[in-house]
Write a structure and sequence with these properties.
Structural class: alpha/beta
CATH topology of the largest domain: TIM Barrel
Oligomer: single chain
CATH class of the largest domain: Alpha Beta
Helix content: 25-40%
Largest sheet: 8 strands, parallel, barrel
Number of strands: 14
Bound molecules: phosphoenolpyruvate, manganese (II) ion
Order of helices and strands: EHEEEEEEHEHEHEHEHEHEHHEH
Strand order of the largest sheet: 7-8-9-10-11-12-13-14
CATH architecture of the largest domain: Alpha-Beta Barrel
Length: 338
């Protein structure tokens, strides 16, 4: 149920409604907008009809059932869009945000070089995987904590915040102590234990769509994080599995405007894992901006030929600089009305 407060409702009236919701065993999720405050009462779906009684409390304008199964992620429970601030970077704001870096942290030299390339190109956030979820158990699994330390060093040297993946609920505490944004990868989009764990964190979460998840399932996964208390979730479309084999996955560009319709959360696109080939990264990036994405996460490597993972889809530095030039040029026209 959503409880819509009158515009001008006082803090005391809002607090009173929150206490009343909690006394009935529901969680209250207030969203303070410019115009008015909306309070989501979320909990067990069985008989919520008595929440309608909130209409008799002072300061309440009306109540409304939340029809969507993804309640906190839905636009019904929040006025406006969520903007997530990471250092000086705003994700979901007017600027198109670019996260860039190698698939995996491989060594100090490779990571520092990658960080300077990301910085030189004008990226906002540096990426690099220290825990790698690999299809084969024989493939490189990541540098783990040593990799996280290199990411922290790269942040210190460039000033760029870092995003890195966490694959195991037991590692969340460790990863969040180094990362500015924690990534949940496509393979873990429905790892509910992991989602609940990052839901308790204060760090923003970049949640990638799985190769086999519907848009609604992605939003239900976001709901796990939001309902555990972490409101800072960024969604990422990274391609889904279809009958097409010319690309690694099929970038579902329509997911971007559809998600924008369904949720207040920011949405970014990963053209690298979608395409699986560096050649398609630039055109797909332009397309991502055109359909209204809030940003990109792209793989860049100083020497893709020697990358330990995802070299084929990683941009060489020069190609990355070209991408950034294009992005900044297009931004002035394409993002004007977003
Ligand atoms: C990655 O970002 O390196 C990654 C493994 O991505 P995905 O989870 O989208 O496959
Ligand atoms: Mn990768």
């Amino acid at each position: 149920m959503i409880i819509i407060m009158k515009s001008g409702a006082t803090d005391a009236q809002i607090d009173n409604v929150i206490r009343w919701i909690e006394s009935l065993g529901y969680k209250a999720h207030p969203s303070r907008g410019v115009e008015r405050t909306i309070i989501g009462a979320v909990g067990d779906n069985r008989d919520k009809s008595y929440l309608k009684l909130a209409e008799s409390l002072s300061g309440v304008e009306r109540t409304m059932p939340i029809l969507k199964p993804y309640k906190l992620a839905s636009r019904e429970t929040k006025e406006g869009r969520t903007v997530i601030t990471v250092g000086n970077v705003e994700i979901g704001g007017p600027r198109f945000v670019v996260m860039a870096g190698p698939c995996a942290v491989e060594s100090e030299e490779q990571m520092m070089e990658s960080a300077y390339i990301a910085k030189k190109g004008g990226a906002d956030i540096l990426r690099g995987g220290a825990f790698k979820p690999r299809t084969s158990p024989y493939s490189f699994q990541g540098m783990e904590e040593d990799g996280l330390k290199l990411l922290a060093m790269a942040r210190e040297r460039t000033g760029l915040p870092v995003v890195t993946e966490v694959v195991n609920p037991a590692d969340v505490e460790l990863v969040e102590s180094y990362a500015d944004v924690m990534q949940i990868g496509a393979r873990n989009v429905q790892n509910f234990a992991l989602l609940k764990e990052v839901g308790q964190s204060k760090k923003p979460v970049l949640l990638k769509r799985g190769m086999m998840t519907t848009i609604e399932e992605l939003l239900m996964s976001a709901e796990y994080i939001l309902s555990a208390g972490n409101q800072r979730v960024i969604l990422c479309e990274r391609g889904i599995r279809t009958f097409e084999t010319a690309t690694r996955n099929t970038l579902d560009l329509s997911a971007v405007p559809v998600l924008k319709q369904m949720t207040h959360l920011p949405v970014i696109v990963d053209p690298s894992h979608a395409a699986g080939n560096w050649r398609y990264v630039l055109p797909l990036s332009r397309a991502a901006m055109a359909v209204g994405a809030d940003g990109l996460i792209v793989e860049v490597h100083p020497e893709p030929d020697h990358a330990v993972s995802d070299g084929v889809q990683s941009l060489k530095p020069e190609k990355f600089y070209r991408l950034m030039e294009d992005i900044r040029l297009l931004e002035n026209t394409l993002r004007r009305d977003m």
